[in-house]
């Protein structure tokens, strides 16, 4: 299909919940470094078919809530079915417009954590996406950014669709964030714990006082 992006391709969508993905994306190694104790709201931005959803819900405190954002309505439908079939509770799914500068709706609470797996590389300018959704993040919250390194790997998107760790770090700085912690996984992935700089905090405070 002309114009289809790699993440809309049926073969890639099958890979997202496959055993092969588990071999590269160790859920335990990815989620264990996160401090879950004080989390009240977590946003899974670009959740796809929900590779991390069940594991996130298991780790969240019993009164915490998971918010799943996705731009492909077919994937939201699949997650709605999974929510029913698997009895997933404390999760709200919502559609995000496909735009280069995404913003989160006002009606969701400010998240303590924003989790982004292999989504920032889908934007032409990741800094716009990081700053756009990061504006909603609590000032003392963290964004966890996981993505493909721009090298050959056993699976994953084409190299041309990947963003190198060096370029992503530049985009992070441009967005007013900083790498608080770099978490080692394997040679094919980079994984950053991000926090806001004073510039991003001031921007959030400025927008929160606007009278709409």
Characterise this structure.
With 212 residues, the protein is an alpha/beta fold. The chain is 32% helix and 20% strand. The protein has helices at 10-15, 19-24, 27-31, 53-59, 73-85, 126-134, 165-174, 198-208; strands spanning 41-45, 65-70, 91-95, 113-117, 142-148, 177-182, 189-196. Helix 6 (126-134) crosses helix 7. The termini are far apart. 33% of the residues are buried.
Say which CATH homologous superfamily is assigned.
Vaccinia Virus protein VP39
| Largest β sheet strand count, sense and barrel closure | 7 strands, mixed
SSE series: HHHEHEHEEHEHEEH
Shape: globular
The count of β-strands is 7
Beta-strand level of the residues, as a percent range? 15-25%
Mean pLDDT: 94
Q: Distance N terminus to C terminus?
A: 42 Å
Number of helices: 8
Multimerization status? single chain
